[in-house]
Design brief:
This protein is an all-beta fold. The strands form six sheets. Strands 2-1-18 form a three-stranded antiparallel beta sheet, with no helix packed on it. It starts with about 90 loop residues before the first strand and ends with a strand. It is built from no helices and 18 strands.
Length: about 350
């Protein structure tokens, strides 16, 4: 499906506030409690196996571009799109080369699009306190900061046994977690160090994503088969770990109340659990490129699905603010951040 968008590929390349330094990791909690909600694998607890809202219905695809968002100033690779306010909504996209594209009222604070990286970018996160800055993380654990997102340490220069796959901030914006493909979690800043992780488990599939609870005292880890692992005060509301999927799970997005979550398949399918309200998906539709990220609106009124070509699909009562779907990108989009 061709998706038109009003965002333009532009760049100010304001990467002067990048921070990148050797690790400042202080050990996180170890161990594993096989309580209800702490896993889905056979032998790892007694979590419910019911799954809801299979992503087989395709409604409200974002094929209409109703916003007019002028591109930001400047030109070159890895730049940002428009940054005009639209009812308090906005989103950003992060590409594998560190390029950043912004839409709605989200400002562009710089990118890595003009730099040579040791390893590709694998994730990004917005400062949840202000939305005025963001972090990016590379697969080697290098952390890059922009805007008012502070640097609290990284794993750059550290020999890792598994690549980093995601970065997630604490609710205060004064810390963040990094997680690797084996489920080991590395806390920095004010991120708690006493929360267990999945490093001691035998996983059927690799961990691909993470989301922190509203309190910052727990988190969900998700594997590519949709297995959900909960730690701290994160509740277990279901998984697709026992289901045969038509496409691997690629992302996890929690509801604002922390009482539910969405799983996104690379085919655009959506699985909703707990208080997550299923509002439609791209499952069953032909996509030009795979889906890579789901962004839940801060008010819970809907969600955006982002594809690797920068295409955006909007569901619920939230606006479409633009996309990169009709623009040739230097590197694929791999994450979306609020």
């Amino acid at each position: 499906m061709a998706l038109l968008g009003a965002g333009l590929l532009v760049s100010a390349l304001l990467a002067s506030d990048i921070s990148f330094s050797p690790a400042a990791f202080t050990g996180c909690g170890t161990g594993y409690s096989a309580e209800t909600g702490y896993g889905y694998e056979a032998g790892y607890g007694t979590c419910p196996t019911t799954t809801t809202s299979p992503a087989t219905t395709t409604t409200e695809p974002a094929t209409t571009t109703t916003s007019t968002i002028p591109g930001g100033a400047g030109g070159g690779p890895g730049g940002g799109g428009g940054n005009q306010p639209f009812e308090g909504f906005g989103y950003r996209m992060v590409a594998a080369d560190g390029g950043v594209f912004t839409f709605g009222n989200r400002k562009f604070w710089g990118s890595l699009g003009d730099r040579t990286l040791n390893k590709p970018i694998v994730g990004g996160a917005t400062n949840p306190r202000t939305f005025e800055g963001y972090w990016m993380v590379a697969s080697d654990g290098g952390v890059f900061t922009f805007g008012d997102a502070e640097f609290f340490g990284s794993l750059g220069g550290t020999v890792l046994t598994s690549p980093i796959v995601e970065i997630e901030p604490t609710p205060s914006g004064k810390g963040y977690f990094l997680v690797d493909a084996k489920g080991r979690v590395y806390p920095f800043g004010d991120a708690p160090t006493d929360i267990p992780d999945a490093r001691s488990l035998t996983l059927n599939k690799s961990i691909i994503g993470m989301t922190v609870t509203p309190s910052g005292k727990g988190y969900w880890l998700v594997a590519s088969d949709g297995g959900i692992f909960t730690f701290g005060d994160a509740g277990f509301y279901g998984s697709t770990g026992a289901m045969k999927l038509t496409a691997p799970i690629i992302d996890l997005g929690a509801t604002p109340d922390g009482q539910g979550y969405y799983l996104l398949g690379s085919d655009g399918g959506i699985f909703a659990f707990g208080t997550a309200d299923f509002k439609g998906s791209m499952g069953g539709s032909k996509l030009n490129k795979p889906a890579v990220a789901i962004l839940v609106a801060p008010n819970g009124a809907g969600y955006w699905i982002i594809a690797s070509d920068g295409g955006v699909f909007t569901f619920g009562t939230i606006p479409f603010l633009g996309s990169m779907g009709d623009t040739k990108l230097n590197s694929p989009v791999l994450d979306g951040i609020n």
